[in-house]
Amino acid sequence: MAENSSSLSSVRWETLPAEVLQIWHQYRTPIIVSLTVILVALRTLHILRNRNKQELDRKLPLLSSAGPKSVDTNRTSSERVGENGNTEKPQSGPKRIVGKKLARASMISAGFSPATDKIQPLVFFSSLGGMTEALATKLSQELDVWSETLEDPSTILKSSLLDLSYIEQDDYFVSPPKGEPNTSYFYLLLVPTYNIDTTLNNFLENLKETHHDFRIDTAPLARLLGFSVFGFGDKEGWPTEDEGFCSQAAEVDKWMAKLTARKRAFPLGMGDIKSDWKTRLAEWQDGLQNVLLEIQKGNGLGEGVPGSGDAEESDVEEEEEELDSKKVPKKKAGKSTLDDVEDLGGSYRGSGESTGPLAIDFTTYGSKAKTVENTSREMVPKTSPTYASLTKQGYTIVGSHSGVKICRWTKSALRGRGSCYKYSFYGIKSHLCMETTPSLSCSNKCVFCWRHGTNPVGTTWRWKVDPPDLIFNGVKEGHYKKIKMLKGVPGVRAERFAEAMQIRHCALSLVGEPIFYPHINEFLAMLHKERISSFLVCNAQHPDELAALDHVTQLYVSIDASNKDSLKKIDRPLHRDFWERFLRCLDILREKRFQQRTVFRLTLVKGFNIEDEAEGYAELVARGLPCFIEVKGVTFCGTSTSAGAGLTMQNVPFYEEVCEFVHALVAALERRGLEYGIAAEHAHSCCVLLGSTRFKIEGKWHTLIGYEKFFECLESGEEFGPEDYVGEPTPEWALWGNGGFDPRDERFYRKGKKAVTCDG
Length: 760
Ligand SMILES: Cc1cc2nc3c(=O)[nH]c(=O)nc-3n(C[C@H](O)[C@H](O)[C@H](O)COP(=O)(O)O)c2cc1C
Ligand code: SF4
Fold this sequence. Notes:
Bound molecules: flavin mononucleotide, iron/sulfur cluster
Region (Disordered): 59-96, 298-350
Pathway: tRNA modification; wybutosine-tRNA(Phe) biosynthesis
Cofactor: [4Fe-4S] cluster
CATH class of the largest domain: Alpha Beta
CATH superfamily of the largest domain: Aldolase class I
EC number: 4.1.3.44
Family: Belongs to the TYW1 family.
Number of strands: 21
């Protein structure tokens, strides 16, 4: 049996290959088809699983074995915080986010410890009409009263109220203030919206610049506890956000979110001043107080606080930023862009040729000023608060960015009561002088400027440009009109009134920055053609324009301080590189000293720029080598605005103090081997003139100007210099030590006024 079975199996074994072959031939087609189907199915399954995994990777931050790095989901989807806290740009290739999910920055308490730390609320505001200021003041007071009622009133400190027009922006918006140890800041910002140029535009520009400045972290305010913005707008003129309702508040909110790494404590509030502002503001205030309570408890901004932001929000803000460069300023409803284009074409048609308006970028130097975007926006529109404020103070606004005003010395001279110091020093009769500016805008916010908060400021010319002939004819007309109005004023002398109807001099020094005007050279040519002399004062912030300036009769540079810190404090320049600009202007002045009469104008403000600064000023003189140095005490205009800038009568130096400074300056110049001397004085306006000995001819000071000689030189087309139009010797009564008052005039002191302040 065993033998049988073994022989059977050996037969089958031997016949197997043939059997398999037979089966294969019989079933090969279904086998091949089945295998192919199985393989295709497996492959498809594999691909699908991979795709799902990638999708999941993209959507969710996953825990990974790669290490403990964390992702801050509060960041934009294209940025993350590196180990050192800096923002890292994503690398190319598939995105892989590792680490464990953290609470958003806006939801953590920025290291705030309720046991030891304090919250300092800062209420910032900007206001032209006063409404926002009043409501910000009220808010600040109410916050203080409310915090007193809390269980632990000591954690929330008394709020501080800060006007964005007056603060040093860098002190609050480039990094949080230093402050007391264990004190963290909470920012509240209340802002109106204006579709004209106000200091708010500048504030916004600076926020943006700070965010983009490669030297500064993109979120330098991340240490703040939080921020929130409330805007006031007018729905009657700007019905929707798209049409500009509260658009500047929205901008402030956007940039603050970026700078704080999105520590928005409460959503942007917006109130319509004609309807719902009270309700909206109350809601906003209520919400903020709740957030402050959360912070006080150590819960940060509180989970689920409305407006803490959601995942998409940061992307929206990034997109907005990208669009920013292409953004067209929001216009009042109803004005089509076609109108703008037409405006552009018509805005400069000087001397028959039609050119588009130029917008000049003054922010860089070293090359010719670049032309930037065209614009049809007016610098000082008739409807603006600036316009109202300027006209109220006696200015005639010409076109959209120029102004003319009769100064008090013109009135005084018409009445035979004496001219300004320019008569004593240079022979200018005040009643023949027109004071004007072709640019009411400026790139400084000097503490002694009366126009704080209302004047258009900017580092670039972003407005419609009026043609020079329009300005020239307009300012003359405005000047003559004002003179005529003085006809009936008691004391005006008939012969002086007749003389005044022929302008002989133009002081381009009113307010603003004349060389900001892109067609300043054409304007000067028009003055000179009518034999009107030109005294131009610039603020030493626009070197390229200064270098490109044609001949003027006398060229001034304001020297408001002797060093960088002091200049920043007193002029509060908008340019970050203000000191480099300033020095470069001095170098340019030095180069021009043999073509033009160059002057340093020092305005002394007690407590700001006098004390111990004589040596510093002497250094600047050594650099610029001006023909003359005018030293004068600041004028106190006595308005609440100047007081708001911290200026009082105490800052106006007495004449004796000015003289003391002049002596110190002369000594410092002598030590440097610089040949200057005290030439003349006008004690009545607290002003002293130092001259280079180039103008001490045969032992006599020659500070007066030969105006007719100047025009002859100019008309000759030949090169000429200051020595070619020197006038008569300085009159005896004007020389240093003699007071500087023309004995032919009647001396007049205004009752109750300090006699020694000066204009011009
Ligand atoms: C010249 C001018 C322009 C304005 N532009 C806007 C605007 O673009 N959008 C807006 O919502 N409100 C605008 N307003 C309304 C102001 O924002 C509103 O009156 C605000 O309350 C002013 O605040 P303040 O007077 O405290 O500075 C404008 C008002 C004026 C006088
Ligand atoms: S330069 Fe003149 S106008 Fe400009 S801010 Fe200073 S003082 Fe005012």
